[in-house]
Amino acid sequence: MKIIKDKKIVEDTWTFVADDAPLADGDIVVTLDRWQAEKDRLLNHAGNLGIRLEPDQDIAEIAADLDKFQLIELNFPVFTDGRNFSQARRLRKHYHYNGEIRATGNFLRDQLFYLYRVGFDSMSPAYDENLEEAIPRLDDFSVTYQQSTR
Amino acid sequence: MYQYNQDDQTILEERVAQFREQTQRFLQGKLPEDQFRALRLMNGLYIQTHAPMLRVAVPYGLLSAKQLRKLAHIARTYDKGYAHISTRQNVQYNWPQLEKVPEILEQLASVQMHAIQTSGNCLRNTTTDPLAGVCKDEIEDPRPYCEIIRQWSTFHPEFAYLPRKFKIAVSGAGTDRAATQLHDIGIHLVANEQGEIGFRILAGGGLGRTPVIGKTIRPFLEKKHLLSYLEAILRIYNLHGRRDNKYKARIKILVKETGVDKFTEMVEAEWLRIKDHMELSDQRIEQIKSYFAPPAYEPDADQDSSFGIHLQQNSDFAAWVKFNTREHRIPGYRAVFVSLKAPDSPPGDISAEQLDAIATLAEQYSFGEVRSTHRQNLLFADVKQADLYALWQQLDQIKLATANIGTATDMICCPGLDFCSLANAGSIGIAREINEALDDLDYVHDLGEININMSGCMNGCAHQSVGHIGILGVDKKGAEWYQITLGGCSENQAAIGQRLGPAVAKDRITTAISDILEVYVEKRHDQEKFLDTVKRLGIDPFKERVYENN
């Protein structure tokens, strides 16, 4: 599957593992629930590890474990739920998280500029999206009024 | 006033391009209505009863003559020849075509105007005191801070998808003319014990369905921390504000449910983490202040003697001066309200011809600038007393000199059922009826200071809950009924009006208002203002009279 990463269209190398599915090989993403339930087993996983957070899940819950994750996915249940914009900002600025932050779920291409500015590196929409058409939206504005997290 | 630099202009032009692309996708069926809705709202575009409504931002109410002429041109070309001033000091057009909106935005951008964030669940236009910079009771001019907030809040990447809309008001004077206690965030310029000027920060105020008076969460904030503190409040709200119920999504509900102490603690903790990274430098503040430097006032303006003579010789002029002008900090100058409340015109409406005329008068008499006010009038801030008579005559010719500012016929009124798809009841028609009932200007003058605010629905766009008399349109089995409140106030002693009793029918509302005013005239002490009489007597005597015939 293709995603947007660092402003380019690339092949996704990660596999999201649902809570009721067996762990896959390679780089995997799990939910917060699964991480909390199977921490020891996941720490012994051979590939890279990622975690998916929903907007109501507090980053503080994984604050001590951030260095275990090469990827943090912030999932958008609906595009109007803007909590992930603050979550990403906090991950970068308060928790100094340097791994990949990815938007998943139902955000819009019209939000890519904002997503990029608050610290998202990659975007993987849950619906069928024309990524070639979407990618210019990362650069809707050439000047801004606020500091960026970048 | 603030002048755009190249960056400001680039942002506007890129915004026009962005919105044009979004509109095209929608018109081609590539962008679903629910998605386009959120995007167009953040550009001030509503779909209304008859046509889309476009709300144009007037940052903290400041307009140049050039901008007024552009607004007139848009009214003529894309609307039905008029515009409407809103309670957020913005300008609304009720008849544009969706297809033409990108073109209108392009026109606006050519005079440093836009519709950015005039609606939607985002940071809205910051409002302030219409007498900023000219009133005598000012601690410091709030406009430079409004401009600093405007820039920070424009396309803030983190706060574009908040739980609900978010409004900030700034006041720099002793008297709060910006209703700061009724905003999501209210900011007051204040002096501390050392005489340093900073900000008192209030949060959690708001009107609408659940009117709440804001609480002070920080009595004194150093100027350099303004943006970090706002950012901390917004981040806490964005993360914790309710998203499960849009009627409980404003910050006032978060503050109430969390408790003001706990909320303040959360904000302060967030602020401590960020405050050192986003300080405003003195240099930056001074640079923005330079745009609001006083104009070249004439030092001997108060030497003119013609003003006093006209006052004595013309009682109509004297009444206009009394009601429609205000004291100015510079001797020999006055601030002049342009009443958009002529008896036969919908409150807040202004025609293209009037806009053009105002532009010319501004250039002639008030340094080329005009202000919009939250009570839906306009203001010339800096008029020499020697020019007042000529200005009055010219305003009178274009029906903009009704001497009723602050009186019962200076009603705040939403567009109501005639235009708005949210409304339950008409408001413009009732305003006209009340005007007809109060057609004796001497009686209106005798009644003195009375704010009547009327909204066609619970959303409360016309701030009815803080009107001295509030009128709220409600739907009762398909019929239009009106609920009356008394004793509301949006100034220093902010209060939410008390409900008088059951709603009254449409054919009874004007009589009810007349009854209330009669009771006041009968019961008032000497010079006692309406609001003070209501406070002294409570609502009972008014209630008895209004319902005795029902």
What can you tell me about this protein's structure?
The complex is a heterodimer of chains A (150) and B (550). Chain A is of the alpha/beta class. Chain A has a single domain, classed as TIM Barrel. In chain A, 22% of the residues lie in helices and 25% in strands. Chain A has five helices and eight strands, in the order E-E-E-E-H-H-E-E-H-E-H-E-H. Chain A has helices at residues 32-37, 39-43, 83-93, 112-118, 131-134; strands spanning 2-5, 8-11, 14-16, 27-31, 49-53, 71-76, 100-105, 122-125. Chain A has an eight-stranded mixed β-sheet. The relative contact order of chain A is 0.17. With 550 residues, chain B is α+β, with helices and mostly antiparallel strands. Chain B folds into four domains: 6-109, Sulfite Reductase Hemoprotein, domain 2; 127-291, Sulfite Reductase Hemoprotein, domain 1, CATH 3.30.413; 301-397, Sulfite Reductase Hemoprotein, domain 2; 412-548, 2-Layer Sandwich (Sulfite Reductase Hemoprotein, domain 1), CATH 3.30.413. Helix content of chain B is 37%, strand content 17%. Chain B contains 18 helices and 21 strands. Chain B has helices spanning 6-27, 33-41, 65-78, 101-109, 143-153, 226-240, 251-258, 260-274, 282-289, 306-313, 315-324, 352-365, 388-397, 428-437, 441-447, 509-523, 530-537, 540-548; strands at 45-47, 52-56, 62-64, 82-85, 91-93, 127-128, 168-171, 185-191, 197-203, 215-221, 325-327, 333-338, 349-351, 369-372, 378-384, 412-413, 452-455, 469-476, 479-486, 498-499, 504-505. In chain B, strand 1 (45-47) and strand 2 form a beta hairpin. Chain B is globular, with a radius of gyration of 23 Å. The mean pLDDT of chain B is 95. Chains A and B meet through helix 3 and helix 4 of A and helix 1, helix 2 and helix 6 of B.
Q: Compute the number of structural domains of chain A.
A: 1
Q: Topology as H/E string of chain A?
A: EEEEHHEEHEHEH
Helix content of chain B: 25-40%
Q: In percent terms, what proportion of residues of chain A is strand?
A: 15-25%
What is the approximate shape of chain B?
Answer: globular
CATH topology of the largest domain in chain B: Sulfite Reductase Hemoprotein, domain 1
Structural class of chain A: alpha/beta
Our Rg estimate of chain A from Cα atoms comes to 15 Å
Tell me the distance between the termini of chain B: 53 Å
> What is the helical fraction of chain A, as a range of percent?
10-25%
CATH H level of chain A: which superfamily?
Aldolase class I
